[in-house]
Amino acid sequence: MGCSGLLILGLVLNVAHSLETQDGGSKGPIELRRNVTGYLGKEAYLSCRYVGESEIFSAKWKRQINSKVKSNSAQYRRIAGAINNNLFGRDGFSKPESATNLTVKVNVSSVEVEGEYTCEFDTEDENFSETVFLTVVAQPDIEVQVNAEIINGSHYQSVSCSAVGGRPLPQISWLVDGQPPSDDSYTVNVSDTAHSNGTSTLSSILRFPTHVQDEDSVTCVVQHPTLPNPKLTAVRVETYTRPNVTIKAEMTQQGGSEFWVVSCISSGGRPDTDISLALDTDEELNSVTSTDSVSAHLPVEEYEGHNVTCVFDHPKFTQKETRVITLPSLYLSVQLGNDTDENFQDIESLALQEGQTDTVISLQITGNVPRYNITCTKDDELLPEGMELVGSSLIVQGPLGHQHAGLYECFLSYHHLQAELKFNVTVNPPVIQPVPPTIRVDLQTEDGRSVIECSAADAVPAANMSWLLPEGVSGVSWFNFTSHNGSHSVGGVLLLPACSPWELTAECVINHPAFEKPENRSITLPLCGMLNRSDAPPNITVNRSTEWKDGEEYTKVECSVDSVATAASVTWHVGNSNISCVSESEVQADGLVSTHSSAHFLSSLYAGQDLTCTVEHPSLEAAEKRTIHIPVQKAHILSVSVVRQQDSPLWLAVCDCRGEGAGTNLAWVLPENAKSQTSLQPNYKGEIQARLTYQFPLGLHEGHNLTCVYQSKHGTTEEKTIHIPRYYITSVKVLNHTTPLQSRYGGEPVIHRLALQEHHQKQKVLLRVEGKVPEYDLICKRSDGSFVRMEGDAMVFQPEITEKDEGLYTCQASFYHHTATVNIQVEVMSEDKLYAMMAMICSSSGMGILIIFVVALWVCCKLNSRAAYKKQESLSPLTALMQEPGSPQVKQPLMTREGDKELAQLISYSIVIDVKSTV
Q1: Which end of the chain, N or C, is surrounded by fewer C-beta atoms within 10 Å?
Q2: Residues 636, 710 contacting (CB under 8 angstroms)
């Protein structure tokens, strides 16, 4: 290395050596440390080294016999050294390293070791000496003690903190809630004691009344030269807690009487609260006292409306606390709970119906009395037979009669409170409920006349009946009435001609209270021409009806023919094929012949075809035909859907088939071992609805298709397919600014580091779930497993964040089996931490600037002073600095003694400055 490099190294080492020995120095060829500190009970080193070139005859450490008293005639004693290369040591001092290095080890067993020591070297030229002062210090032991006492009813505590066996005398201070005690309630007494071994004990007593201490500990701070930092000792002390005080009143019954139990309650306080109870009068109460309550029993009727006061006294109260409760005033009233009518006598009236059963007359009683007595009379006598008082209601057993009518009086009482109710009960005749009649109309022909009969039977009350004829038409009519078991029947007869030359309609009109409007029944007389002509054409009507049986639809077709003379011939056919049918004929009273032909068959046999009724009759020149179309059954509606079940982790696939005659031939195309279930539900229109369900976990069919197959009874097949979506959650992102901590095996962040401000309220960590899901559950937990409050997709810290909220948080988003997590390291940044971080950054920046300055200086020296590095004089001081104090071999000069001016060896130094900063 060149001269400039060695100069820079020498500069750095000289600075370091000066810092190390800033309290020492040397004169001439002696290097030593002038001031040495020794710890009592440990070992210390006195260092003295000769760096000259003269030969050493003798070297020694000596001490003034009375080193603490300086005098002109002081006497010294040798304690270690080297004479004629013979090393020696005595009085607790070790032998030195060599004649040139008088570094010795001293056993600091007592304070007597403290004093001034002289290092001397005798050479062939002259004698050299230097002095060193050894100071003895002792680290104190910390002892604490808490005592309590009561003075004039007040509780005091004294905390003693002693630094035992220290040298020099330590310093003791106190911290209460992190601050020095400034309240006048806190007093500090300090005393010190000297010991025979040269050490001392300092004691400090902190005294305070207990009620002013809110924290459960105080801190003793001891400062001493032997302690690198002040020693903090927390001492647990007793504290008082402010109690919660309440007053309450409860009603209880003892020995048939009611009492208010008024309680004064104190909870959660320390020490116990002094409680007293008083009335708003001068009366003294007999109370029951326990640890945390005082209670008194007060008769209800005597103390209603009185104020009761509880007085609480506690050291934490600046003044006595009072709680007042007012005992309620009793009241009692009664009125009729049923609907009543008002009258001028202010007596309530109640109207009831004769014959009604389960009659209850309710009395509405209001009040705050615990109980009451009640009696009721009717017309100043006992209640009638069959009526009794149950609770606050009059109940009538059996039907209500006239004997229950009259004036009722009910009396209520509780001690001095009374209430009275008078009400008049009237019993009205029963109301008859109308019963509608059964109406029938009939037409017969007798003796060439039409006899029309109309009846309205079994009605309550009896119906009114009348005839309504066309204008200009008259007939003979009469009515008869009959009654049976309270119901009435009315019959009417109307005589008209057997036929009419024109269309004639007679109407029977029935009026009854059960009808909103009169009921009419009409009869049409046949035309006289049809009765006289044998060739009159028949009247043909056809109709169709359907019915369901065992899931199948059946159709019934009917063909009715009204004709004169002989019965008509009726047949059914479809296309060229005949259909089996049932026919029957009946002769009517008017001489007409009615023929009915019907066919009953499965609807699916002739669906979509026309059925023809063929009628043959002598009055017809050709057969008459009537056609009925059989409709095709509606197509089945097949639908599939997938729903998420609320109370189950399984999804539900539903296949519905609806239509006429739909069966249960439904099936899911499923993998093996999959389970399904079916349910059959008919509806009111004859349609059948079949439902097939299948429960499955989402992961089993996610992204696949599910197919439902329906096969009808006729062999047709229909399919419906639904797609199960594929969902995924890729990650959970932290939207706040974070510092990612990378894994050593990959580039993805393992933990996101996030800093929050201390004591700021409602701070949030915003999250975002990446993926494709309709919804998701997002929860966050602390490292101890406790949950964090969430608002939407944000963690919320409230009311304010503290250092307790620091730690690792894990947030997980889930949708069924899809999950994704993120780890967040939350750090709480306080103002102290921020200032410390700024100081570290500034120091790191200053160190970097210093390195740049040293490198620039080195380059400048190398360019301007290249030749100077070969000179021996420039190496001598550096060589002396680089030698270790206790190694004679390293002490040999790097130059040869013959004065060779060439460099004996090349020494390389590498200075590495590692600056680390954590932000």
Answers
A1: C
A2: yes
d(Cα 441, Cα 456) in Å, to the nearest integer? 9
Model confidence at 71: pLDDT above 60: no
pLDDT at residue 873 is higher than 70: no
How would residue 305 be classed by pLDDT, with cut points 50, 70 and 90? confident
CATH number of the domain at 728-829, please?
2.60.40.10
Bridge partners for 468 per DSSP: 507
Coil, helix or strand at residue 823: strand
Q: How confident is the model at residue 618 (pLDDT cuts 50, 70, 90)?
A: confident
First to last CA, the chain: 38
| pLDDT tens sequence across 309-342 | 999 998 888 898 999 999 888 888 988 887 655 4
Angstrom distance (rounded) from CA 501 to CA 445: 16
What percentage of the chain reaches a pLDDT higher than 90?
A: 25
Q: Tell me if the domain spanning 333-428 has CATH number 3.40.1050.10.
A: no
Q: Give dist(CA 707, CA 668) in Å, integer.
A: 6
Distance, CA of 531 to CA of 527 (rounded, Å): 7
Contact in structure between 740 and 755 (CB atoms under 8 Å): no
Q: Which CATH number fits domain 141-236: 3.40.1280.10, 2.60.120.1140, 2.60.40.10, 3.40.50.300?
A: 2.60.40.10
Amino acid at 228: P
Residue in 869, 860, 859 with CA at minimum distance from that of residue 907 = 869
Question: 76-89 burial, b if ≥16 CB within 10 A, otherwise e?
Answer: eebbbbbeeeebeb
Q: What are phi and psi of 882, to 5 degrees?
A: -85, -5
Packing angle of the helix pair 3-20, 831-864 (nearest 10 deg): 140
Cβ–Cβ under 8 Å, residues 693 and 677: yes
Residue type, 192: D
Tell me, what DSSP letter sits at residue 140? P
Q: Of 332, 256, 589, nearest to 448 (Cα)?
A: 589
How far is C-alpha 461 from the geometric centre of its chain's CA atoms?
69
Backbone angle region of 178, left / alpha / beta, with phi > 0 → left and psi within -120 to 50 → alpha: left
- Look up the CATH architecture of domain 534-629: Sandwich (2.60)
Structure tokens at 38: 């020794």
Q: Are 85 and 108 in contact (CB under 8 A)?
A: no
The angle subtended at Cα 375 by Cα 362 and Cα 258, nearest 5°, is 95
- Answer for the pair 457, 438: CB distance below 8 angstroms, yes or no: yes
pLDDT of residue 663: 59
Span 674-700, pLDDT tens digits: 665 656 565 545 566 778 888 888 888
> Can you tell me the distance from the alpha carbon of 353 to that of 619, in angstroms, rounded to the nearest whole number?
69
Give all strands of the β-sheet with 577-579 in edge-to-edge order: 577-579, 569-574, 610-616, 624-629
Domain 33-137: assigned CATH number: 2.60.40.10
Neighbours of 696 (CB within 10 A): 21
Q: Given the DSSP bridges, would you call strands 348-353 and 417-428 parallel, antiparallel or unpaired?
A: parallel
Q: Does the predicted model carry a pTM greater than 0.70?
A: no
**What's the CA gap between 235 and 176, in Å, rounded?**
10
Locate 893 and state its tokens.
């000069």
Asked if residue 461 has a cis previous peptide bond (ω within 30° of 0), the answer is yes
Q: Which fold has domain 244-326?
A: Immunoglobulin-like (2.60.40)
Q: Where are the domains of the chain?
A: 33-137, 141-236, 244-326, 333-428, 448-455+464-531, 534-629, 637-722, 728-829
